[in-house]
């Protein structure tokens, strides 16, 4: 009897249609391409045009896809709401180009004309069109922010093109960047530290004395912090990898890390983190009363 009732229940369940699930809504944006197409010269022309567009406060001259997606601090926004609509007196700009993944990254520093900013913008490109504009906009109040210090130390650093014998393979660049970011959760990770090396974090600088033997191995914040949603851009000719990511996997903690390799080792590291935090001083120190985030 029990067996017959059990079989009847199974048959009844098999005959009962599953509850209908709502169909996923189609994205209003152009679909991301697994293997986009572009050329390095094309990407260079686009970053030059983007910098000029930011000076003017208009993206109108850029070849934007009609369904391009626009993000600011890793949140999708309307095109008309982005910082790119504000004309800014750019004090310095440098760009990197990945003609394998068809992405660019441009670092813009603004120190005059009102509010200071340090902006990191990615353009995603396919078949001559920009399909995604993704900006991280840091300003006073954000993590270790100081545009004056960011400008000062960026200009002191060497970002010139490398000789072929100084280059690092893309696979090794990705491995090393991952090792650094894994170090926030695993302090035993082997990271490719080089000498000299300096970290420019928002505006705080780790080698203000210009020590030729300085290392970037000066400690990581204590505790376990997972860095997720890593998105890579590799400029092999410049020895640069840029990683967009989220600290702690939190949607409210966007971040950009840019690593410069020479001879397989880190030599310069720049970070932009548009979340509230302690401030840096004009000389690249940490403002009085603020705790050193890397202190154990």
In short:
The chain is an alpha+beta fold and 296 residues long. Helices cover 18% and strands 31% of the residues. The strands form 2 sheets. A 6-stranded mixed beta sheet has the order 2-1-6-5-4-3. A 6-stranded mixed beta sheet has the order 8-7-12-11-10-9, sandwiched between helices.
CATH architecture of the largest domain: Roll
The major pleated sheet works out as: 6 strands, mixed
Number of strands: 12
Q: Assign the CATH class of the largest domain.
A: Alpha Beta
Spans of 5+ residues with little confidence (pLDDT < 50)? 1-17
Calculate Rg over CA atoms. 23 Å
Q: Going across the major beta sheet, what is the strand order?
A: 2-1-6-5-4-3
* Annotation field: number of helices: 4
Question: What oligomeric state is this?
Answer: single chain
Order of helices and strands: HHEEEEEEHHEEEEEE
Beta fraction of the residues? 25-35%
**Class from helix and strand fractions:** alpha+beta
Main features:
single chain; alpha+beta; Nuclear Transport Factor 2, Chain: A; 296 residues; six-stranded mixed beta sheet; 2 domains; 31% strand; 18% helix; globular
Walkthrough of the structure:
- The N and C termini lie far apart (69 Å).
- This protein has a 6-stranded mixed β-sheet.
- The chain has 2 domains: 40-138, Nuclear Transport Factor 2, Chain: A, CATH 3.10.450.50; 156-272, Roll (Nuclear Transport Factor 2, Chain: A), CATH 3.10.450.
- With 296 residues, it is of the alpha+beta class.
- The protein has helices at 2-15, 40-56, 147-156, 170-182; strands spanning 64-72, 75-77, 92-98, 103-110, 117-126, 129-138, 193-201, 204-205, 227-235, 240-247, 254-262, 265-272.
């Amino acid at each position: 009897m029990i067996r017959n009732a059990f079989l009847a229940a199974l048959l009844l369940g098999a005959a009962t249609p599953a509850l209908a699930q709502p169909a996923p809504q189609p994205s209003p944006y152009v679909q991301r391409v697994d293997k986009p197409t572009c050329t390095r010269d094309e990407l260079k022309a686009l970053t030059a045009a983007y910098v000029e567009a930011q000076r003017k406060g208009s993206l109108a001259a850029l070849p934007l896809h009609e369904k391009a997606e626009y993000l600011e601090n890793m949140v999708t926004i309307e095109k008309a709401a982005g910082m790119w609509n504000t004309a800014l007196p750019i004090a310095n700009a440098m760009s990197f180009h990945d003609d394998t993944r068809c992405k660019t990254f441009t670092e813009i520093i603004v120190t005059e004309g009102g509010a200071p900013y340090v902006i990191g913008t990615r353009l995603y490109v396919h078949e001559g069109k920009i399909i995604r504009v993704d900006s991280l906009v840091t300003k006073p109040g954000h993590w270790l922010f100081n545009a004056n210090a960011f400008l000062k130390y960026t200009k002191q650093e060497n970002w010139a093109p490398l000789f072929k014998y100084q280059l690092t393979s893309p696979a090794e660049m990705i491995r090393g960047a991952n090792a650094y970011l894994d170090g926030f959760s695993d302090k035993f990770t082997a990271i490719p530290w080089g000498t000299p090396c300096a970290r420019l974090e928002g505006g705080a600088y780790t080698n203000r004395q210009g020590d030729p033997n300085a290392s970037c191995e000066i400690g990581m914040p204590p505790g376990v912090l997972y860095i997720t949603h890593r998105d890579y851009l590799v400029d092999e000719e410049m020895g640069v990898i840029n990683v967009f990511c989220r600290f702690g996997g939190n949607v409210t903690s966007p971040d950009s890390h840019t690593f410069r390799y020479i001879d397989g080792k880190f030599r310069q590291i720049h970070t932009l983190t548009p979340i509230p935090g302690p401030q840096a001083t004009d000389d690249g120190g940490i403002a009085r009363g603020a705790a050193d985030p890397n202190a154990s």
